[in-house]
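Notes from hallway chat w/ T.B., transcribed later so I don't forget. T.B. wanted the structure written out for a chain they're using in a teaching module, and asked if we could keep both sequence and structure tokens in one place. Agreed to drop them here.
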Amino acid sequence: MANISDIPVGSSSTIVTTRSKCQKTLHDTVYTEQCELPTGKLPVQKDVVCCMLYLLRPDRAGKGMRTINEAAVLLSNALVEHWHFCNVYTIGERHIVKKICGVYNEFKNNCQTRTDRKTDKWKERMSTYNHQLKSTLFDISTQDRQRTRNLEEECGVKMTALEYDFLEDQKGPRIGYCTSFVDRKWEKTTQRRQKEQQSYDRMKRDNESSRPEVIPWKEVPSDLQPGDSTASEDDTEEPMYEGQDMVSDSAVDIPRPTKNATHP
């Protein structure tokens, strides 16, 4: 079950905000905000509208009011993850964002219809429209075989006949249910943690291998060990500076005072 980030954007005057839910009524159908996509099933167009209501709720926006397009980007990320959990691969996110904006803008325009234009013909048309949103899959499946192969390689799971049958069912009667949805979601979380652990272990090994090699003392060549220096005495003499006589203290008769010394 994909969760939608709590980052909304403005609304129209037709929104009714309760303590816990934001609702919008279009003729004979109530659209209530939702923060999750349906578990084990692919979302219909009404799910997309209700998720957008959640993202666009003004009291959640604060000062950072976002556009419809920005909310659609957030929703597209959740949709891609949701479809991949069902092992059905999707078109690019840029195209998904465009489809989300199209569905939501049409819904918003219908809700903003003036009262004097809500004729019987309009009501009939809205009844058909509401039924369409409730029963029509928000289809973002890819028909590009190369993209499918790329995603199969990236995700490590191939689409089988079972997944193609599930997709066709979601376009029609919507009887099918992806029983492995939760297992795949848990598996993806586990795989992510395993990759993080493997990356840490690899970095640790690289650090250890880059350390300088320590040579045991017994393997150090004897000519490099202290105490075996072959330096001559000349090498160890202190340097003589200019103006200094090479005379030791013992060769100079330095008078020293005695106890019985008297002063003149």
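Follow-up for T.B.: The longest helix spans residues 181-209. Might be a good example for the class.
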